[in-house]
Amino acid sequence: MSGDSKWTWSQQGAKLLRIVSHLGQRYLAGSLPNRCLLCHQSLNAKEAGFCQVCLQTGLYHSPICLGCGKSMSLELEYCGECQRHQPRKVIAPCSYHQGFGPWIAAIKYQGQLAALPILCQALVARIGQLEQQEFITLPQAIVPVPLHPNRLRQRGFNQAWLIAHELSKQLSLPLACDGLIRRQDTRPQAGLNGTQRRRNLQDAFELNADFAYQRIALVDDVVTTGTTVAEIARLFEARHIQVQIWCLARAEAPGLLDDVN
């Protein structure tokens, strides 16, 4: 058998294993008691992922600056510091550091999707709240942060696409996946400092010339330093396309969520 044939069979075998594993996980999940991922209390038939007590405990409890993620005492778009330059708005229902972080990481690194639907529901509720307050306007389309084809083959899925697809269904907004592509198979951002992150992503993405929308939400699982979404947002903004950032959680800088006096 030629080397190319062996490689083809290897790819097909790996794909088959992923399918069998996914089906097995779904069967196992369906046969187990429906319990909260955090407190392990039984959930009713309409609940999944987290019970309402744990969900509400993990969500933001005070107004949050849409720029830096700082806790505020008043419902405003930006804190005093961010008012000066009004950065891109990052919309998230919770902090990565306050309970849900391990389950969001499990979506990306382990393919465990139990928490995804309910966290998407929490994000949709947050979006609705901000829209009602006239802090944001709903976008025309939802754009997931893309993976390079090599990374997509290795992982088997793009967590940003899964989140964006769920949000698209819940909000009845189109999912725009074809206009933005990842040209370079960059190193993982985890473990890199700010300068290394920016250098790592330089020219990593490309936006098609015929992208049709003028107002979009860019979706990722978590926003940490914001380097990835900023690199992508600049491509859209260069064409005068308005960008919001939507994510399941925000990993803000230390101290920003300290109690507001």
Automatic annotation (TrEMBL):
Occurrences of domain Phosphoribosyltransferase (ranges): 162-253
Protein name per its UniProtKB record: ComF family protein
InterPro entries for this protein: ComF/GntX_DNA_util-trans, DZR_2, PRTase-like, PRTase_dom
Gene3D superfamilies: 3.40.50.2020
Pfam hit, one: Pribosyltran
Alphabetical list of PANTHER family matching this protein: DNA UTILIZATION PROTEIN YHGH (PTHR47505)
Parts forming coiled coils: none
Residue stretches making up the Double zinc ribbon domain: 32-83
Domain of life: Bacteria
Family of the protein in this entry: Belongs to the ComF/GntX family.
Organism for this UniProt entry: Shewanella mangrovisoli
